[in-house]
Amino acid sequence: MMNSKECLWKQEQKRDNSKILLHACCGICSAYPVSFLKDAGYEVVVYFYNPNIYPDVEYQKRLEAEKILCENSGVELLVEEYNQEEFFDYVKGFETEPEKGLRCDKCFELRLMKTANKAKELGIDNFTTSIVISPHKNFQKLSTIGEEIASKTGINFLAIDFKKKDGFLKTNKIANSLSLYRQNYCGCKFSMR
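^ that's the sequence the OP posted. Answer follows.
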């Protein structure tokens, strides 16, 4: 029978540095990051966790686009249960915040914390997010949130600014070639304003 130290050592041996869990907000935003990470030598596992997306029909359209992308890219897709109440509870008190305000920070925090915890559960050492490819999102803010979560969970956050070197243009070209659904707002009920 193994003692707790031996058991912990065995779990550490199972960890895989070549894998990365990519939080995906939508097919368009994750198109180039998937390609970039594969080219960098990672085995990419896409994690679709977006309780913020509203309404249900919008969520389904974005999930379908993600499925098409992952199938065409040859990467695994994990889909977390869709529970809007989880998002509403997490951002309670921040509903009237403007876009790019504290409500958005809370939303990023929720989704990245869940991603890091999922990576830990799966034995994956690294995580990142496709959200940063959007020209409407603050890379530094998202990186800070990701790094804070990394220090709490022990899972490495890769702060990659996928916008650089025409990343946004590249992601749109991939998305267009696959005829992926293109949304016209960030995703939550409040961003529809």
